[in-house]
Amino acid sequence: MNALVPLLVTLPLVGAAVALIAGRHRRTQVVVSIVTLSLVLVIAAVLLYAVDVGDQPIAVSVGGWPIPFGIVLYVDRLAALLVVVSSIVLLAVLLFSVGQGAADGDDDTPVSIFHPSYLILSAGIFNAFIAGDLFNLYVGFEILLVASYVLITLGSTESRIRAGVVYIVVSLVSSILFLAAIAMIYGALGTVNMVQLSERMAQLPQETQLVLHIMLLLAFSIKAAVFPLSFWLPDSYPTAPAPVTAVFAGLLTKVGVYAMIRTETEIFRDNDVNTLLLIVALATMIVGVLGAVAQAELKRILSFTLVSHIGYMVFGLAVATPAAIGATIYYMVHHIVVQTTLFLAVGLIERRAGSTSILRVKGLMRAAPVIAVLYFIPAINLGGLPPFSGFIGKFALFDAAASVGTPLMMVLIVAGIVTSLLTLYALMRAWNLAFWREEDDSAETEARISYLGASPSGVDTERRVIPRIMTTATAGMVVVTIALTVFAGPLYAVCERIGAALLEPVSLVQLEQEAGK
Q: Going by C-beta distance under 8 Å and a sequence separation of 6 or more, which residues neighbour residue 340?
């Protein structure tokens, strides 16, 4: 099994090199990308089964260097589960983008650039999930960020370049903070291996631990779009092509959340900033959802709901019990899949209606009933209606918080319920206006929604044909969202085991034993 672990990163990198060499051969690039991500999905599923059934993580010391001197790739249940989910999402979005490129002549997503960049982005995401030390985690971040710089500016329009510049500046600030924190940690403790850091961190004074802790949290909070460091996201994501926006919304912020989970449960287990995290989670939920309610453009609505629902994950992390961590992992998986699906559905709406502004889009229920279904199911799921996975994840989070029972926890539970209702309101208002409103139903309706004003991103585009593969990819993701509910029992059981394992310290001896197998 150990030999499979490095393939999670090397396969996408090799695939990116092949795709770059085959830049003039569209079909070759498509085949290489699909085969590469399919192989990663199979390998990740095998590793997830192995670490779950065997109840032991897999550690690989790259290059045969003794731990902790070499780079350690570490696959436990959490890493394997997230690689599986990420592979599914990346594969579905890739198929969506293939259909879009074939229909548009690759004007929006130039194939010679897109496929290598997309595979490099995938390698960075996978590397971040299986990194066993802070510096390798930083490398994973930088790999995916370099690729994301290219993807977010595809097409080279004015709005995309402007959004890309903001995204680059914010990402660089985050990276500088992260790298500075790594340097300080190495200077103080002589290692960046996460397992060894968990053993040595107690040697430092509490004040020093707190400074290092806050620096890492700030760096990861920028990447995860936690309020008040989320200002960049609503203006950056909506300008990119639909497949790029979908994969960014589904995965990039979750890599930041993943880093926060690792930091809180492994490195700073005894350094408590949970009250601060609860306050930040409360602000993130409320400010994000209020921003969504005030928007008239579908991509911006979803971008603000993305911010608000990051608050649920920070909330679960701050509760810091095994049940809460397990619920957080389940909700993260749910949100990766559902948020990606919604952005793909909005991409279909944009092509069919020529706009994503709910002030302009009308009558899609008659014109595109399939798209109506593909939007409606993930929308009510994200809003938390039972029996969908959104309801299951939120209920589990609230139940874990209620078991702690502090007044602040009760406030967060109420805020979480309000956020869920407002999310449902924003998404269903968009559904009502875009799908149920008839072409001649304008004067009275527009008077009622005039408070929304004009959206800065709601620019009309030409209506375009929707290739079957784009609809099929979106429908496949809708099926996955339903599967999260149908198979919630086994999946949640895995997440519970993850929650329990993360709060149990792993010793350096155990890590060396796993790497030596």
A: 89, 92, 93, 246, 247, 249, 250, 251, 477
Placement of tokens 């995965």 in the chain: 251
Q: Which two tokens stand for residue 138?
A: 């930083």
DSSP 131: B
Q: Which residues contact 354 (CB under 8 A, 6 or more apart)?
A: 460, 461, 462, 463
Asked if the bond preceding 243 is cis, omega within 30° of 0, the reply is no
Q: Cα separations (Å) of 54 from 47, 58, 257, 323, 463?
A: 10, 10, 26, 22, 52
Burial of 405 (0-12, 13-18, 19+ CB in 10 A): exposed
User: What is the tally of helices (H) and strands (E) in the chain?
Assistant: 22, 2
352-to-57, 365, 368 alpha-carbon distances in Å:
47, 12, 8
Could you tell me which of 63, 84, 66 has the C-alpha nearest to residue 75? 84
Assess whether the previous peptide bond of 68 is cis (omega < 30° from 0): yes
Q: 414: which residues sit within 8 A by CB, 6+ positions away?
A: none
Task: Provide the percentage of residues in the chain whose pLDDT is more than 70.
Answer: 89
- pLDDT tens digits, residue range 81-116? 999 999 999 999 999 988 876 545 554 555 578 889
Q: 439: number of CA atoms within 13 Å, CB side?
A: 4
Which pLDDT band, with edges at 50, 70 and 90, does 26 fall under? confident
Q: Identity (one letter) of the amino acid at 486?
A: V
Structure tokens given for 81: 């589960």
At 121 the pLDDT is 93
User: Three-state SS string across 197-234, please?
Assistant: HHHHHHHCCHHHHHHHHHHHHHHHHHHHCCCCCCCCHH
CA distance 68 to 192: 8
Show the DSSP H helices in 105-205 as ranges: 111-130, 134-152, 158-189, 194-200
d(CA 267, CA 56): 20
Q: Are strands 72-75 and 58-61 parallel, antiparallel or unpaired?
A: antiparallel
For residue range 145-189, what is the model confidence (pLDDT) as tens digits?
Answer: 888 888 887 766 676 777 778 888 888 899 999 999 999 999 988
Whether the CB-CB separation of 195 and 511 falls below 8 Å is answered with yes
Q: Can the peptide bond before residue 387 be classed as cis, meaning omega within 30 degrees of 0?
A: yes
- Residue 237 identity: Y
The total of other beta-carbon atoms located within 10 Å of residue 270's CB is: 10
> What is the reported pTM?
0.92
The 8-class DSSP code of residue 107 comes to S
Residue 453 zone, left/alpha/beta (φ > 0; ψ -120 to 50; rest): left
Q: Which two tokens stand for residue 87?
A: 């592979």
